[in-house]
Structures are given as structure tokens and as C-alpha cells.
Amino acid sequence: MTISISSGFDSGNIRTLSITDTPGGARAELEIVTDHQSDFYQWFHFRVAGAAGREVELAIVNCGGSAYPDGWADYKARVSEDREIWTQADTSYADGTLTIRLASDANVVWVAYFAPYSMERHHDLIAFAACQPGVAHRELGLTLDGQPIDLLTIGDGPKQVWLYARQHPGESMAQWWMEGALERLTDEEDAVARLLRQKATIHLVPNMNPDGSRRGHLRTNAVGVNLNREWHDPSMERSPEVLLVRNAMDATGVDFAMDVHGDEAIPAVFIAGFEGIPSITDRQLALYHRYRDTLAARTPDFQTRLGYPVAGAGRANLAMSTNQIAERFGAVAMTLEMPFKDNDDLPDAETGWSPARSMQLGKDCLAVLAEMIDAL
Asked: pLDDT 10s digit of each residue in the chain, 376 long?
């Protein structure tokens, strides 16, 4: 009996080209499917059945043309037998092909670009948070596939804080971060949460792109639109997710915003700012630097050495949310990036960067916000 490979489930993505039996094992050639109506691809998530006691080699042959081919060097795929614990697989990359090797006692193994965060778990997270004391839930509207955009609001202080994640749906670590942040904010015994709820009103959008998440996309929504290039001129026809959230921000104002992402190539946690916006102020920039440097001092999982190039004066792309929000509201805004690979400064050979570390980082980010909430 040969292996079977399937991806017909929430966030699944792979196409099987061939499967060949070998002595004691099997080899499959696969390719990642592009986002619908888009050329982007890099996210994969699939199931291998019939793997028990066999050496299985999985060759994803179209990685050289993916959205971020520099992300494959030194990358390790994630595998799970129970869909709860995800570990790093034996993985190598050469000549445009990513090769993943499995040797499992389990008959069914799941393989993914990063530990998935399913839409079912998203709804469980919303159900949990909405039932906690002092948490208000609002459905902002529906996506093009008819899925809800959920907003959770916590606290009643004067500072307006917006935290939103997963504009790019394949960056599932962003929603694990959100789960950690919500876990802390809803803990009534946690001093950081109590202070933030008193000083600020915190608005959280745990998943900005449910359509792309369910469809198994890397970067776009149901019609192939990159949401983080829509913030200057969103529409209900192309990017209702952005329009609905930006309208809600217009109603409250924004003092502090964090857009949570994952980066394919850089093996570190870092943030990107808004340095090139037209109306930048010394106060905005000083507060941004204060947040960045304090986070680096508080957690070794964050650093300031590696990151993106800084835009020159007046050259910020206002279609991106961090730049648009900083310009539109005079806010302190930033994009947080976590790695698909690992944090090379603190590597974990078994799990790499993981859901647990993403969740802890969410809690650490809130603690730093609490330190400077009065200054915003």
C-alpha cells in the first residue's frame, strides 16, 4: 500500500504530481498551489497517510518560484502526529526543491509551513474571549466568502490601542500571538492586564483575513488581493476586510497600533516602523524607539539588529497599514514580524519558532505597552 497525500481541509494547500514506491519507503513529488487569482505561493499544509514504519521523502519541486525563495535556506518544515504538537522535520533545500523526510510510527502525519491556526480554533478563541468579563464582541461585517470579521474590545481607558493580525493568512504565528495576548488581557489577576484595561481601550482583530486562512493562501484574500497594500483606498469589492477595520478605527481614533506578521527569510523577531511618512513627528518617533528598545531589553526573543530597510523621508508606502495609521491618526504604529525559521539568537532544535513562543511574545509585548501607556 502506497502513501496517500491530501489537503482538502481548512488551510490545506498542496498538489500531488507523483508518488513512487521505493524499497522500505515512498517518494512523492509535490507543488504548492498559488493563492486564488494571484501569483503568490509559499504556504503548504497537507496530510500524509500510510506513513507508519516507512521512510517517506516529500519533494516540493516549485519552491524556487515561490514568493520568497530566500526563505527556504536553513528552513525546517513542521510536522505533527496529533495536530497539537508541531516539531521540525528533516528538511533540505537545493535547486528549487524543498525536500522533507519523514520517519514516523504513526500512520497519519500532518506537514505544514508553520503550525496552522485553523478557522475552527479562531471561532473557539472568539467564543472564549467574548464570554470573559469586560470583553465586548462586535462583528464588523462579512468577507467576500461570507465569513465574519470579529472585533474584541477590552478595557475602558482613554488611550485607543489597536492590535490586529494575519492580514497575510499564511503567517499563522500571528494568530498564535493573538491568543497569547488575549489570554493575558482576560486574566483578571494579571497586573499588566488590569493596568492596561484601566488606562486604555484595547481593540483586537485576531484574524484580518479569514478567507485566505481557510483557502490555504499565503498572502491574499478570496480574490487575490494583498490586504496590506489596500489601506490608502480599500473597497467592499476588493478589500472589505481593510475597509471594515479602518472604518472602525476612524470611529475610535488610534493612539497605538501593532500589525502582527511573520517573515519568511529573516531568522529573528523584529519590528518595522513608519519613518518615511510625510507628517512624522519627533514625539511619534521617540515613542516608537522607546517601545522597540524596551521590548529588546525585556525579552531575549526580540532584537533590533536585523530587520527591514528604513524608508527615506517622505517615501513611506501609505497603502501599508502601519504607515497609513501613523499618518492618518498621528499614532505610534508598528509591524511586528516573527520568523518561519527560528530565532537564531535563541534556537530550539526541536520546535524552532513555535506557537508557544508566539503566545509568550504576545504577553511580553503587552507588558512593554503597559510600561509606556501613559506617554502615548
From this structure: 789 999 999 999 999 999 998 877 999 999 999 999 999 999 999 999 998 989 999 999 999 999 999 999 999 999 999 999 999 999 999 999 999 999 999 999 999 999 999 999 999 999 999 999 999 999 999 999 999 999 999 999 999 999 999 999 999 999 999 999 999 999 999 999 999 999 999 999 999 999 999 999 999 999 999 999 999 999 999 999 999 999 999 999 999 999 999 999 999 999 999 999 999 999 999 999 999 999 999 999 999 999 999 999 999 999 999 999 999 999 999 999 999 999 999 999 999 999 999 999 999 999 999 999 999 9
In angstroms, rounded to a whole number, what is the distance separating the alpha carbons of residues 184 and 197?
A: 11
Q: Are 170 and 351 in contact (CB under 8 A)?
A: no
Q: Closest by alpha carbon to 203, among 246, 143, 142?
A: 246
Q: Tell me how far apart the alpha carbons of residues 260 and 88 are, in angstroms, rounded to a whole number.
A: 23
CB 271 within 8 Å of CB 256 = no
Distances (CA, A) of 252 to 108, 208, 256: 48, 18, 12
Q: Which is the catalytic residue, given 55, 337, 350, 371?
A: 337
DSSP assignment, residue 83?
Answer: S
User: Which of 151, 166, 376 is CA-nearest to residue 251?
Assistant: 151
- As a 3-state breakdown, the chain gives helix, strand, coil percent values, each rounded to 5, of 30, 25, 45
CA distance 231 to 73: 32
Pairwise CA distance, residues 184 & 192, whole Å: 8
3-state secondary structure of 360: helix
* CA–CA separation, 374 and 247 (whole Å): 25
pTM tops 0.90:
yes
Residues, the chain, total?
376
Any catalytic annotation for residue 84? no
Phi, psi angle pair for 237, to nearest 5°: -80, -35
